[in-house]
Prior knowledge:
Elements: E1 24-32, E2 39-43, E3 50-51, E4 54-56, H1 64-76, E5 78-90, E6 105-117, E7 129-132, H2 134-140, H3 145-153
Parallel strand pairs: 1-6
Antiparallel strand pairs: 1-4, 2-3, 2-7, 5-6
Amino acid sequence: MAQKLASTARTGRDKQRYGAQGERLVAGVVPLSGDKTKVLLIQSTRRGGWVLPKGGWETDEGTAEEAACREAWEEAGIECKIQKDLGKITDRRPASQMTVQAPKAMFQFYEVIVEKEATKWPEQHKRGRQWMSYSEAKAALTSRPELLDALNRSSIVR
């Protein structure tokens, strides 16, 4: 990853990109081990449980890939290399889960190989991380169909 690694996480949405329908543009990663037998999930700060590293694609970032790798660093403390574009995934949360803080989103996910796990990272104080097999991750992501879709599009060993 060529970008500079920040010691603090970005906050706020003043630089957030939005799509033509007003949806928040979100970039994320499916972080795989080198042998593709495990995926690294992180703890959600809002709803509890496990999620994939993801967050807003901001206006000062040239590509969604750049945003995805920044989010991987901030949330999971990993340096990664993009292997493939997993495509766009529409937010499938019910309207009852949409809020001003968490509006409808369009996700752009990338499969990455984790090259380095840091012992210190920007959000370590509020997020745990855990390597899981496909079946463990599938069970952990059942309440988030868009994240499960991203996992299923990856080449993790099933």
